[in-house]
Write a structure and sequence with these properties.
The chain has two helices and nine strands; from the N terminus they run αββαβββββββ. By secondary structure, the protein is mainly beta.
């Protein structure tokens, strides 16, 4: 009996210590504003994203840098196609996000991120086979912590969509996106 209690105590303590070594999991929302610069069809878009930010090694069970995070993001919005029609645009992406420092002055943390996912656009540019495409992205951002424990973020991303050569024609699209959001 005492051995059982000792084993349970050890297991509980080890589990508690392991849980404390992970950064907290955060939920968030953002507004994403984008403009397609290649090909230039004067296409702009706006999306609302919901996201979840994990400690990287909580998801991928191997050692990772302490400042590395894993982000899952889902976005839905509309694209103003060729300055006329409003079309649906939706995506699901995963990112690796690396904080560059612990914190600068006034609670500011810069980061870089890169990821991939899938995207649906209710339009196709000339030479694009599919409405469902791959969606690699990369960006830089800043996190801002406020006095009332709110954490805001802003990022600038390069956004690409293409079918990765799965179709006969593969005219991709390239965009730049500004994100403004908050973790809660």
């Amino acid at each position: 009996m005492p051995l059982t209690i000792l084993v349970l105590f050890f297991c509980f303590s080890a589990a508690q210590l392991r849980a404390e070594e992970y950064a907290p999991t955060l939920n968030g929302m953002s507004l994403n504003l984008g403009y397609t610069y290649d090909p230039s069809y004067k296409t702009s878009f706006a999306q609302v994203s919901v996201l979840r930010l994990y400690d990287y090694d909580r998801v991928w069970k191997h050692k990772a840098p302490e400042n590395l995070r894993f982000k899952v993001e889902s976005s839905l919005g509309g694209a103003r196609w060729n300055e006329t029609d409003i079309r649906i645009i939706a995506s699901v992406n995963i990112f690796a996000m690396l904080y560059l420092t612990d914190s600068l002055a006034n609670g500011i943390r810069p980061y870089v991120e890169a990821g991939i996912g899938g995207i649906y656009t209710d339009y196709r540019v000339y030479g694009q086979d599919y409405r469902f495409n791959f969606n690699p992205q990369a960006g830089i951002g800043l996190e801002f912590s406020t006095d009332n424990n709110a954490t805001w973020f802003s990022a600038l991303r390069i956004h690409h969509l293409s079918n990765a050569g799965l179709g006969d024609t593969n005219r991709g699209q390239n965009s730049v996106i500004l994100l403004i959001g908050q973790y809660f």
